[in-house]
Amino acid sequence: MNSPEITLEDLSIANPAAYPEVTQQLSENVIFTTVDDLCNWAKMSSLYPLMFGTACCFIEFSAMLASRFDLDRFGVFPRMSPRQADLMITAGTITMKYAPVLVRLYEQMPEPKYVIAMGACTITGGMFSADSPTAVRGVDKLIPVDVYLPGCPPRPEAIMDAIVKLRKKIANDSLQERQKTEPTHRYYTRPHRMNVVPLIHDGKYLETSPRQVPPPELVASGLPALREFESIRAIEARS
User: Fold this and answer.
1) Span 22-43, pLDDT tens digits
2) What value does the mean pLDDT of the chain take?
3) What is the pLDDT of residues 50-102, one digit of tens each?
4) Most buried by CB count within 10 Å: which residue of 2, 40, 98, 215?
5) d(Cα 221, Cα 231) in Å, to the nearest integer?
6) Are the beta carbons of 56 and 81 closer than 8 angstroms?
7) Are 58 and 91 in contact (CB under 8 A)?
8) 190 Rama sector, left if φ>0, alpha if ψ -120 to 50, beta otherwise
9) Which pairs with CB-CB distance under 8 Å and at least 24 residues apart come from 105-111?
């Protein structure tokens, strides 16, 4: 059986390494666009999220940055400094003690900047919205939010979908209409409905009545614990 003949064309390289040549066609050398489209294309193609997390949602956010989901194809590269980031993903519960730190980090980010509220605890307080005295009922009380991502916690695919929706929102931005499109109403937040209660731990537990007088049950029992109670009171009186 004769083998097929191999010609010189078969041995040629498919993509030879050579200097690029300038074509003579106008459509391949000139691009017509607008300033808005050019700026939006640059912003949506190079989102730099801040490495910021406060609770369990950050575990999913970290998993999204792994090689399995390949977030680099969107041009998304996490940054450690707020001065180099333009996207904040609030991954986790925001407490009242941490709220000033969150606002400070947001103010340190350069314009234009965007926020994705990730998780139910960030959007409405989540499971802490009923009886927690410290959880903030919605991060939009503190900073403006562009995309709300519900879940407890959302999976990495959901975070990537939120980033895609944010890219579509950035693609429709306009430099002249930016002030008109700023958020003015907030719908996803929940009010704080807490009653003021007296302090339980006020630092004066040694002056409480159970510490001054032994309980009646202890006196009636005649147990050795009564002598121990009296010795403790004597030590406290000397100190």
Assistant:
1) 666 655 666 777 777 777 787 7
2) 76
3) 888 888 888 888 888 877 877 777 788 888 888 888 888 898 888 888 888 88
4) 40
5) 17
6) no
7) yes
8) beta
9) 105/50, 105/52, 106/82, 106/142, 106/143, 108/82, 108/83, 109/50, 109/82, 109/83, 109/85, 110/83, 110/86
